[in-house]
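Q: Given only this backbone (92 positions), what sequence would you predict?
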C-alpha cells in the first residue's frame, strides 16, 4: 500500500468535518493507529449526540499485525460499545 493512499494530503483535510446526527441518534466515530516497527497499536472510539456533546468514549493500546487490522478492531470496539451501553439508534 502506498503512503499517499493512507495519508491524505493537506488540501484533502480542509474539506473534512464532523456533521451531527439527527436528534435522538448517537454518532460513533472510531480510529486506529499502528506502528509497523513494533507492531503496537491504539484504538479510540468517541460517541456524540445530535448537539455534538461527548457521551461515551473508549481508548486502548494493543499488539496488532497491520493498520487494516487495527482499524477493524477499532470498528469492532465501537459496535461492542454501542451494544454495551444499550444504544438502539446509532450511526457509524
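A: Predicted residues:
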Amino acid at each position: 500500500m502506498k503512503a499517499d493512499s493512507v495519508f491524505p494530503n493537506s488540501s484533502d483535510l480542509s474539506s473534512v468535518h464532523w456533521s451531527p446526527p439527527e436528534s435522538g441518534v448517537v454518532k460513533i466515530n472510531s480510529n486506529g493507529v499502528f506502528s509497523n516497527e513494533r507492531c503496537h497499536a491504539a484504538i479510540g472510539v468517541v460517541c456524540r449526540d445530535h448537539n455534538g456533546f461527548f457521551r461515551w468514549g473508549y481508548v486502548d493500546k494493543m499488539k496488532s499485525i497491520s493498520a487494516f487490522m487495527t482499524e477493524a478492531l477499532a470498528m469492532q470496539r465501537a459496535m461492542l460499545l454501542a451494544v454495551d451501553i444499550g444504544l438502539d439508534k446509532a450511526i457509524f
